[in-house]
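Milestone M4 deliverable, item 7.
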Amino acid sequence: MCRLSLISAALLLCACAPTFAQSKADLQQLLTSAEQHASLFDDQTAPFQLDVDLVVKAKVHGRLTLKWGAKDRWWRKLVLGNFQQIEVKSGDSRYTARNSEINPILIGDIFKLLDLDDNAGNLTAKKEKHRSEHGVNLNCIQVEGKFETSHRVCLDPATSDILSDEWKEAPDEQDSEKFTNYFYFGSHHYPHTLELRVNDKSVVTANVLDLTAAPFDESLLTPPPGAIARRECDGETAPKAISTPDVDFSGLPSNDKSPGDSTVAMTVLADGSVDDIHIVQGMTPSMDQVILKTLKLWKFTPAMCGTEPVVADITVVVSFRITS
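Output delivered:
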C-alpha cells in the first residue's frame, strides 16, 4: 500500500503562497521550490535528534528516536508496547533488528508519516481544488506521483501550512494524514502533531517531543546483533518467483475455511529463500497457518543491485474461493 508522506507531499507545499497560480507549470514550480526549501530529511546538513511519542490504533503507546548524521548515516529505534526495532543506515546498506513480529505495513506507515524513508518520488500538480472546513476556506490541489491514486493536499490559506493529505485506497478505504502546530527547525518547517486516519479512525498519532541539533555518534553505525542487512541501490531489480507451491486447504474442515484473501509480507533473502513471513490481513487462523507453512517453501530469484543479490521485502496476496 503506497502512501504519500508528509515531507514528500505536505511540506513540499508549505513554502508556497496561500493562493495557487492557475497553470500546471506554475503549480509544478511551487512544488519543486517548496521541496528544496522544506524537505528536512532530504537536504538537512547538520546532525540532529528527533524524539516522537506514538499512539497506534488509540491503544498501543510507543516511542521513536531518530539520530541523524546524514541521509546515508542514521540510527533509529522504534518501541511499541513490547515490540522493539533498531535500524541503522550506513552508506548503501540498512540493518534491521527486531525482537518480535509486528505488522510490517504498520511500521511502514509510521515511518512514512514522519518521512523517515526517502520515498518522495516525482510529484505532479494537476489542478486546484477548494473546500471549506469549519468555516475556513482551504486551498487544495490534486497531486499525482509514484502511487496508484491521486491525492488532495489542503493548505491553510493564512500560513500555507499543510493541514491534510487525503486519498482513497481500493476498494473502499479512505485514508488521510493530518498535520497541526508547525514550528521552525533551522530553515525547515515541521508539525508538532501528525496523524494517519483510515476510514476516519485513527491508526497512528505522532507527537514530536523534541527536535534539536545534536552531534552524531559514529559508533551507532555498527550493525545491531542479529540484524538483517539490506543493500539499497538505484535501479534495484525486484525478486522473481521461481517455485511457488500452491496453498492446499483441502485438509481443513469446512468450518475452518472461508472465502477471502490473506495479505502476507515477507523477506526474500539473498539466496532466494524467504524469511520473516507475517500475515498482514488474514482469513481464518487455520487457513493462515497453512499459508505460512506453504510460503516458507517458496523460492525466488533474489533482488539484484547490479550483479549482487540483495535482500528485499515483498507483499503477496493468497486467495481462496469456493467454486461450484
